[in-house]
Amino acid sequence: MLTKRGKYALRAVLYLGRHRDRGPILIQEIAEQEQIPKKFLEAILRDLRNEGILQSKMGKGGGYLLAQPTTRISLGDVIRTIDGPLAPIPCASQTAYAPCSDCPTVDTCMIRIVMRDVRDASSKILDGTSLQDALDRSTALDAETKKTLHFDI
């Protein structure tokens, strides 16, 4: 399940992606525009910076910006940085595997097998969706909504 931290991270990164041509953006602006508590956002952005998804600039004109092009950042990268592995249970994880203490046989455990399928499906979608893909989809949905509202009036 996506945590509140993970959701806030996605919102912040999408905001930075929408405004990438402006240069560094202050935490205060992101917090206000995305309605994210500033102290909570500071920790999230620091984690994303430490992982190389964001860059920060200190001083006048400072703030946060994307460290890579929007086409090279996947939603999976952001979620893993903030929430950890995508697998719903540790024994289904590729990056943080840990056997269950109550599992009699790992290789034939149907729970693990199904949870690996869940992990694989989630990973395919999240790793296959770049920040640019999400921004493009959002722009298309906004345009469609405006078009629909225009015809309804």
Oligomer: single chain
Q: Strand arrangement, largest sheet?
A: 1-2
Taking all Cα atoms into account, the compactness measure Rg is 19 Å
Helix % is 55-70%
Structural notes for this entry:
This protein has 153 residues and is mainly α. Helices cover 56% and strands 5% of the residues. The chain contains 6 helices and 2 strands. Strands 1-2 form a two-stranded antiparallel ribbon. Helix 1 packs across helix 6 and helix 2 crosses helix 3. The radius of gyration is 19 Å and the shape is globular. The mean pLDDT is 92.
List keywords for this structure.
153 residues; mainly alpha; two-stranded antiparallel ribbon; 56% helix
Topology:
Blueprint: H1 4-18, H2 27-34, H3 38-50, E1 54-57, E2 63-66, H4 75-83, H5 110-127, H6 131-152
Antiparallel strand pairs: 1-2
Helix pairs in contact: 1-2, 1-3, 1-4, 1-6, 2-3
